[in-house]
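As promised in the previous annual report, we have extended the structural survey to additional targets. Below is the entry for NAD(P)-dependent oxidoreductase.
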Amino acid sequence: MAKQPMLKFVQIDRDMPQKRDATVRREDFNEIYAEYATAKAEEQASRCSQCGVPYCQSHCPLHNNIPDWLHLTATGRLEEAYKVSQATNTFPEICGRICPQDRLCEGNCVIEQSGHGTVTIGSVEKYITDTAWDKGWVKPVSPAQERAESVGIIGGGPGGLAAADMLRQAGIQVTVYDRHDRAGGLLMYGIPGFKLEKDVVQRRNDLLAEGGVKFVQNCDVDPAKFAEIRAAHDAIIIATGVYKSRDLEMPGSGAKGIEKAIDFLTASNKKSFGDEVADFDNGRLNADGKKVVVIGGGDTAMDCVRTSIRQGATSVKCLYRRDRANMPGSLRETQNAEEEGVIFEWLSAPKGFVGDGNVTGVMVQKMRLGQPDASGRQAPEVIEGADYVEEADLVIKALGFEPEDLPTMFGQVDLPVTRWGTVKAEFLTGETEMEGVYAVGDIVRGASLVVWAIKDGRDCAEAILDKINAKAAIAAE
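The corresponding structure token record, generated without further manual editing, is:
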């Protein structure tokens, strides 16, 4: 009788890849987790219970076939595991690194619910695809037949690149127009290297280019450019993301030393490429030797506090108006930040800033949690008489992002937007009311997860292909 390769969660404990010591990893921007060895990856994959109804899969936005590629990994069929993983996910090695698995697949693992500790799905996913790259199994797109139809994609982030990949597989001519000098969007310029090393993103960009995707970099799309792009293609996809930072209008908010998270993170990432960054070199966007206060509790705030530690800040504190249990960011990231020396000031909110020209502190008001608000979360209430000043040389606002005013930027008054400024587009297809114009990712959803942008890009590409094929069929009759 063949030995059962799976359901070993009772005999084998959950074991993450080794995490570098905090005192070491806070000195560089390298990823903090080591890679699984083959035996360890197979062992951890074998813990999967192969559920009849896999909640890990149903709670993954891409509905990745997780049980199957865990089984293939556990039985040493790694190339097949990669093919199954790649079938539903354009960037599995990126999702394996940055997805909040504790809130998605792993957080819904059945054996986790039974007290045995979740399968380390994200780490195995990362291992599978990194091995595939090392073994040469990852190949550029090579469509069976080239087609004359073309699609222009405005924005080179995960949503746009996922759509580009799917369209090229079908032989469609694809051009990506991106505002930055490197494609990837927040993957390249927003997320720090200790979560996602940039060569991981760049090799995907290179692969897409090798497969025939054309990139137009440093491309600011104004009304004239939008009209040009629309005229040049059979369809266009708006995948700009949301880059407008939410702000704080309160006493002292105009002082020097109060910066936006996206500016701070972009400067740090550009510096890591060896680029010249004047505002980093002159100290404005550099935490070295400073007391840093980050305002916010999401993943962007975690990126900022951990980046500040690595830049050499003398102290780093994070102000969040709710408690740990109500943080919107990954609990795993919060733990990593605390290990590295970040201090969290829970139930604390800013009410103004101190300083004569340059910021010297944040006026903080202490909070308590009251009745649930419209979202169902307990609303923070001010505790009167508990205010204090938190000293700071650099304050970073990580309060989330909003969409830019695209109808004005693009000169398209007919581009439909919601009251929040996001583009109105059909669910699953991304189609807007403008003929041949689609939209995907955060510019439709609002600030969200990379994995959702990938799903939107793939779904939109499929919808565009359906429409192109339908037109071609009619023309052939």
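The radius of gyration is 23 Å. DSSP finds 19 helices and 16 strands in the chain. These points will be discussed at the next consortium meeting with the crystallography subgroup.
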